[in-house]
Amino acid sequence: MFRNYLITALRNLYKNKVFSLINVLGLSVGLASFVLISLYVYHELSMDRYHAKADRIYRIVENLRTENELLFQSVSSPPMGPMLAKDFPEVESYVRFTEGRYHVRRGDLSFYENEAVVVDSTLFDVFSFQLLKGDRKTALTKPHTVVLTESTSGKYFGNSDPMGQTLEMDGESYEVTGVMKDVPENSHFQFDLAISFSTWSSANKENEMRAWFWNGFHTYLLLREGTDIEQLRAKIPGFIERNIEKGGMYYEDLPLQPLTGIYLETPRSWENGKRGSASNLYILSAIALFTLLIACFNYVNLSTARATRRLKEVGLRKVLGAQRRMLIVQFLGESIIVSLAATFLAFLLAWLALPSFSTLVESQISFGILPDSSYVWAGLLVPGLLLGLLSGSYPAMMISGFEPLQIFRPSARGVFTHQTFRRILVSLQFIISICLVSGTLLVYSQLNLVRHANLGFTKDATTVLYYNGDESVRDHLDAVKNELKSVHEVVSVTASHSVPGQPVTNLYTMIEMTDGKMSPTNINTNFVDHDFLPAYGIDIAAGRNFSRDFPADDTTAFILNESAAKDFGWTPEEALGKKVDQNRKKGMVIGVAKDFHYQSLHETIQPILFTLNKWAMSKLSIRVKGEDIPAAMSKLEEKWKTLTPGLPFEYSFLDQDYDRLYAADAKLGKVTGVFSMLAIFVGCLGLLGLTSFSVERRVKEIGIRKVLGATSGHVVFIISSEFIKLIGIAFLLAVPITYYMILQWLRNFTDRITIGPWSFILAGCAVLVLTWLTVSYLSFKAAATNPSQALRNE
Fold first, then answer.
1. In Å, what is the CA distance from 532 to each residue of 385, 485, 528, 666, 729?
2. Chain-centroid distance, C-alpha 355
3. Is the Cβ–Cβ distance between 724 and 765 less than 8 Å?
4. How far apart are CA 697 and CA 417, in angstroms?
5. Each residue's pLDDT tens digit, 120-169
6. Phi, psi at residue 308, to the nearest 5°?
């Protein structure tokens, strides 16, 4: 019996080749899109879950209160890990990280290592990083020891054994005591080499256990099995009260953040490593679901449309003794065969598209990220069976329920020709298509605003050249700058600790308030030279810039931005002359700079303080003429090697660095664009099938209309008008849905586009034009047919 059903099913599919091809192709493209986005979403949700103890690892973060603000920081101070482990038996272990940039040399090899961490010896007890060489317990215990990743080891030592050998790092010698596997890509932080924490603590013994406000560390706790996290959190206020003196600045709370939630939670200041976006994942998940729904709607529509052509077949089968159960099995079997074929084709398409998709989302996506191969087989069979059952059940139940006499009457066809159900599905397709197109247009509009927004500073044609505070540059800074400025293409040169788009130092500072009292605060601070503000085109709102005409500026002058002045309750003019005490440097405010976006447009402009300090500066910002940047960089490299023979010529372009702040948003724009087009393609395939069915069903009507004098254009209008009405209804429903969703996404930005009508109108027109082109092709073909061919059997 099964063999008979299979032969009948294949025969029917072959008989209706066009419908079968549209069904299989549309469903496979929709499923492939769903699979690809699902893999990416799974990849994002799997961040940090590869650690064996991931469910017991928590990061200490801070809610730090000053007299003027509440700071949400991802960092903590050095005593917190040890003291929490001492006070609470629930804490099994801890590990502290502090990130740094090191100039590493071995022989003729010389590089800046940007992904370096100073870390406790408990690194391999808390996290599941695989140590290939060395002892997990002792590899990071002694001062001036370092563990390299496999890639870094190959970079400096090639195929030779690095164990026991040394590297020169920032002028000091470090012994290699271990080699570990590279940090997996699905980790919220990355590093290329790990330096023993005892290297840092041996130089800071007096401050390690007392510096409660030296917030330069990321601390992770490993809790014992069975620990109630809420009970532990409830004990934190008592810990703060017992150990940390409450003054003008104090800890309001020390929340414990689960490791597996860090990547997608709202970022705090001073985050380590990369971060994802939960809202972007929701949007991409919706796109995946919408694309799949469009494909499924097509499938159901075409299945129900095709079912009307088989009424007589069903009637004859019933007359010959076929039971309803047998007919249902036959119809469902045909549907399942089509859906399984589409599912296997979908996974083939997804597999072929994976490399391009990985490039698009800038992540290492593969079926290998799934924990078990059974997930792949489940992903193959379950969707195919479900789609086959769901799409085939409606026509199977309806047709098989008719009695033979009913089937041969015209009323039987009325069940399907009313088309209410089909119209609902087509309308939903149009709603989804308009939402996707208009949403994509609005995302690109926001990204365009971000790229071309007035940031308050000049970033074009600016190169950031790193020297890492090396004394060969630091001690002769003015001479080095003058030599670089002698290159014809160079417009300006300035030195600083940080540049716009990069993290700045957050320092404990005492500032004079309006009542004359000195109040503590943690304020973002950038150490710069005299030329920094003019070089970046940052204007002065009140007072003056640093000047070499005032030698005291080196030791007593500070400049605030407008946000800092406002935060402290001053106008820019009132801020001038206010006292500042920062790290034993006492002076006063000599100027207030106009606000500029030194962080991304996701964040409001924060208070920042500028001060002169050549000992803290580590990079040069070189602005060049834009005519021939490669030639300028070649000349700069030649000059740099002459000035600093021992330093590598490592640089980046500021505009590219700044654009990376919006990498997640740009990724969202690219993905939504691509999959919106695929969704519309799938929708057009369905329209092509439905139009073909409609034309075939109305072929005699078209013939009669032609005989009575109807033009081809009139026939096209009659056939396409039904779809155009549905687009109008869909447009009215899609606009508020898209408006609400985009409004939620735009809340991630401080500067936002105004959501006007044009994106929606353009999206509606695009869907209308594509629909009309799809429908009109077959309509014109039918209208051009000789009426005698349609009516010759009457």
1. 65, 14, 6, 30, 57
2. 18
3. no
4. 9
5. 999 999 999 999 999 999 999 999 999 999 999 999 999 999 999 999 99
6. -65, -25
